[in-house]
Each structure stands twice: as structure tokens, then as C-alpha cells.
Amino acid sequence: MTTPVDFGIHAGETLGLIGESGCGLHLGKIVEPADSDALCARPMHPYTQALFAAALPSHPDDQPQERTVAGEVPSALNLPSGCRSHPRCPSAMPVCSEVEPTLQPRAGGGEVACHLY
Ligand code: SF4
């Protein structure tokens, strides 16, 4: 049986942690399905990292992490070519606007769809 643990949505980006499974989604595409522990310990996709960085600190005296994603979320009715993340991704490379990355095995288990890996 799975138990909902956390579910966050931020302007078209979603991070779901349900029981022992988690995944990062961006504009309707799963970009990082992985075991929740692995995902929390080492988010690899830039948008999964941004979603973790956007989370409120666990203590009011803790400083929030600096946001690394700027710009507007693309329209879901007119998705960008290649990787849907490329217009706002701080790690984007030329290939990112041309080729949509597919899910590949990620270190620590699970998969990640990003040309960085
Ligand atoms: S494929 Fe490129 S644009 Fe997409 S998340 Fe990875 S580095 Fe960023």
C-alpha cells in the first residue's frame, strides 16, 4: 500500500512523492521517475532540482535555496521543440532545443530524461 507523502506543483512543474515512489514532471512529461529516497537524496534533472530548491525551508531560521530557473513557463498548447525545459533551463545546450531526451537509467536507481546524463 502506498501512502501520499508530498505533492507539489509550481507553474507547470510537478514533483510527486507517493509512498516509496517519486517522480519529477515538467509540462506533462515524466522527466525523473525514481525511488523517493533516491530522488530526495540526489535529484538529477534540472527541474527536479529546481522544485526541491523551491521548497520552503524546514525551519523559519533556515535560508531558502537560491532559485535557478527564470522566465515564463511555455504554453502547454505550444510546447518547445526538443526538451520542453530548454527555454528556461540553466544547463541547456544546443542539442536540447533539437532532440527530445528519453528516459535513461540514472545513478542510484530510476530514470532521468536529460541530455546531461
Ligand atoms: S535536456 Fe537540456 S534543456 Fe532539458 S533539462 Fe537537460 S540540460 Fe536542461
Explain the overall architecture:
There is one protein chain. The chain is built from two helices and six strands, in the order E-E-E-E-H-H-E-E. With 117 residues, the chain is an alpha+beta fold. The chain has one domain. It is globular. The relative contact order is 0.19. Iron/sulfur cluster (SF4) binds next to loops.
Strands of the widest sheet, in order across it, are 1-2-3-4
Indicate the structural class. Answer: alpha+beta
Record field, number of beta strands: 6
N- to C-terminal distance: 32 Å
Helix content: 10-25%
> Secondary-structure element order, as H and E?
EEEEHHEE
Mean pLDDT figure: 79
Estimate nothing, just give the exact number of structural domains: 1
Radius of gyration: 14 Å
Q: How big a fraction of the residues is strand?
A: 25-35%
